[in-house]
Amino acid sequence: MGDRKSRQIIKQDSIDLLKPIDVLTLGGNDDPCFGMHHDLKAPECMECGDSDFCAIVKAQGLHKERLDIEKEQRFKDIEEADDDMVKKKAEAEVLILEAKTKELPRLKTILNISEILSIPKEIVKQLYDQI
């Protein structure tokens, strides 16, 4: 999406208001404005009768842009939790508590739990330090 242009920059004389807008031009180079420069605070957008339609087109463009960004980067907050790993972490917490009550050595406890539950030692270390 580009920067919003004011209506003075967009050639008003070249737009025939009596001619219906070709839906296929929306979002392209021949687009008169819709969805490309949507800004509800701009006076030309407040006067436009198609502001709802424009908002929908803009939202679709932003959705596509967000999906493209998500493909390139990893977002931990939107990743789905691995149910199997969640269960293993809960089991590890129980085993860590048992080991702490028996006063077993930290390193031996971490290694044993990691081997028993088949989870990385780093995760067990974090859980051990949190408890």
Detailed description of the structure:
By secondary structure, the chain is mainly α. The protein folds into two domains: 12-77, no CATH class; 83-130. It is 52% helix and 0% strand. It contains five helices and no strands. It has helices at residues 43-47, 51-72, 83-101, 106-117, 121-130. Helix 3 (83-101) runs antiparallel to helix 4 (106-117) and helix 3 (83-101) crosses helix 5. The longest helix has 22 residues, at 51-72. It is rod-shaped and about 85 Å long. It starts with 42 loop residues before the first helix and ends with a helix. The relative contact order is 0.08. The mean pLDDT is 76.
Itemize the secondary structure elements and their pairings:
Elements: H1 43-47, H2 51-72, H3 83-101, H4 106-117, H5 121-130
Helix pairs in contact: 3-4, 3-5, 4-5
User: What are the secondary-structure elements, in order, as H or E?
Assistant: HHHHH
Count the DSSP helices. 5
Shape: rod-shaped
How much strand content do the residues show?
under 5%
**Main structural class:** mainly alpha
What is the count of β-strands?
0
Gyration radius, rounded: 28 Å
Determine the N-to-C terminus distance: 48 Å
Number of domains: 2
Please tell me the overall pLDDT.
76
Oligomeric category? single chain
Low-confidence spans? none
> Can you summarize the main beta sheet?
none
Helix content: 40-55%
Using brief descriptors, characterize the structure shown:
rod-shaped, 131 residues, 2 domains, 5 helices, mainly alpha
